[in-house]
Design goal:
With 391 residues, the protein is mainly beta. The chain is 3% helix and 52% strand. It has a 7-stranded antiparallel beta sheet, with no helix packed on it. The longest helix is centred in the C-terminal third of the chain and has 8 residues.
């Protein structure tokens, strides 16, 4: 049996899917919502909700149990302010690894703002930092929050009266900072010495000092291989294209690790499976029609398989476009690394030209091996597995 999935089509029902001998049992958790996210270690989810109130909108982040019962409101948009960040993206929501706190990026009275809420304590929607763009990463123990706001990178120490430690005032050429699994390393980037490319930098331990790891000729997206100090670096020399050209790894367990080229071909995003044994890539079509396919490669870069092409749903396009951020909060890999989720339409799902209503997006599961099909799970714009349980 597979782990359960929470799925949604933008602004429509949020559903829970549980596998059984007959397929997937489906139950509705909310009548309408966006971007459901599992609360780690608990039978609950957070979901973004938008309500139309005449000419204005109001948005909130609600916590529900797996029966659909309302547990708590974690955030509400300010009265008279903007209710959403962008179309189909009311908020960005990421739980702390232990599920006790939730960080919400939303429109506040002063612009794009990071808010913190406690799942069960008195703290609700406490504004922490304002800036744009705004990306963040929880430390594995939930005690620190790395915040990349504009060109500033800082670490918020939640156990020390929220003391903020500045890391860099020139943090550019990347989006989301990344912690290693044990929280001892924090990776980010700054511009290269000549003004071209970036230097990937590493903070070791709890200090503010950082050291250069490697200089690369373009913008980067970062991610640690699970269970290791191996930093994975996607490099793009044409950021406007929305695609990366190469994927490098560098072993940061030593100070003199040499980078290794893992993949050289266009891709829009990569996702390590929870075991650290393989990666899934979203690969754009060469036909320019918006189609993509999935590819899987081993941790050593060996090709394992590719999926049939599909037209990704709106939410899946957003997920792939900001994978370094969404991948920390919304999990496409099953906890055991056996299934990767896709969402959209297959070529065979396309409607006839004479019909203008189109076909609905579907959620698919893909077993990362040669010749494996995209297996239909349910209708939906995107779906997510729960995170791996803390050890």
């Amino acid at each position: 049996m597979f782990a359960p999935i929470v799925a949604a089509e933008p602004g429509k029902a949020v559903v829970l899917l549980r596998s059984n001998e007959e397929g997937w049992a489906r139950s509705t958790l909310a009548r309408a919502g966006f971007w459901p996210t599992w609360r780690p270690g608990h039978e609950a989810i957070g979901v973004s909700v938008v309500v139309d109130e005449g000419k204005k909108q109001r948005s909130s982040v609600e916590m529900l149990d797996l029966e659909g019962n309302h547990l708590r409101t974690l955030f509400e948009s300010p009265i008279g302010g903007d209710a959403v960040i962008a179309q189909n993206v009311p908020h960005y929501v990421v739980w702390s690894p232990d599920g006790t706190q939730v960080a919400v990026v939303a429109q506040g009275s002063a612009g794009l703002t990071l808010f913190l809420s406690e799942a069960e304590g008195p703290l609700i929607a406490d504004p922490i930092q304002t800036g744009a763009p705004l990306f963040l990463a929880w430390s594995p123990d939930g005690g620190r929050l790395a915040v990349h706001a504009g060109v500033n990178l800082s670490v918020l120490e939640l156990a020390e009266a929220r003391a903020s430690r500045p890391i860099s005032a020139d943090a550019r050429g990347f989006r989301t900072p990344v912690f290693s699994d044990d929280g001892k390393l924090l990776a980010f980037a700054t511009p290269g010495a000549t003004g071209e490319g970036v230097v990937v930098r590493v903070v070791r331990g709890l200090g503010e000092e950082n050291e250069p790891a490697h200089e690369l000729p373009g913008g980067v997206a970062l991610g640690f291989r699970p269970g290791s100090y191996i930093l994975t670096i996607a490099v793009t020399t044409s950021p406007a294209s929305g695609a990366f050209d190469e994927l490098w790894t560098i072993d940061l367990s030593t100070n003199d690790g040499e980078p290794t080229l893992l993949v050289r071909r266009p891709f829009t995003s990569f996702f390590w499976d929870p075991t650290g044994e393989k990666l899934a890539f979203v690969v754009p079509s060469t036909t320019g029609d918006g189609m993509v396919s999935l590819q899987a490669r081993s941790a050593q870069g060996e090709f394992m398989g590719a999926s049939p092409p599909f037209l990704p749903s709106i939410d899946y396009q957003t997920m792939a476009g900001f994978f370094d951020q969404y991948g920390t909060s919304h999990h496409l890999w099953s906890p055991d690394g056996s299934v990767f989720l896709a969402a959209g339409r297959l070529l065979t799902d396309s409607p006839a030209v004479s019909f203008g209503d189109g076909s609905r997006d579907s959620l698919f599961g893909w077993n990362p091996r040669r010749g494996a099909p995209l297996e239909h799970i349910t209708e939906g714009g995107i779906g997510f597995f729960p995170p791996v349980a803390l050890g």
